[in-house]
Specification:
Arc Repressor Mutant, subunit A; 6 helices
Length: about 120
């Protein structure tokens, strides 16, 4: 496959393109949690260990901009915001599950237990 340009970034293959959308430390864990239910920001923050507010906000924005999640804002005080997965996001779940299973297999080979 020839290289291609998308949003002013040059890509060399479809794997690189996909990983740029859902890769990194935090996007897959966010999508994994949203696969089963709607979450509020504070719930995600408490449930994803070691993620900072700044990083969670940034990753949620990127996932929303790419169409993987939906952000619903309620006109109430205090503000209420809920995040849910979109159809595009649901399409990622089998990929994330494969990565998770592969990671568990590697951990087992190395004698590392799942926390």
């Amino acid at each position: 496959m020839p290289e291609f340009l998308y949003k002013n970034k040059l890509y060399y293959n479809p794997v690189e393109f996909a990983m740029d959308r859902i890769g990194g430390t935090w996007k897959m864990p966010i999508l994994w949690r949203l696969k089963d239910k709607v979450w509020r920001y504070s719930e995600l923050r408490r449930n994803i260990a070691h993620i900072t507010d700044k990083m969670l906000t940034s990753q949620l924005r990127e996932l929303e901009e790419e169409g993987f999640i939906h952000r619903k804002v309620y006109a109430v005080v205090p503000p209420k915001v809920e995040y849910s997965i979109t159809e595009k996001g649901i399409q990622c779940i089998p990929v994330i599950e494969c990565n998770r299973n592969y990671g568990l297999s590697l951990m087992e080979e190395e004698g590392i237990g799942e926390d």
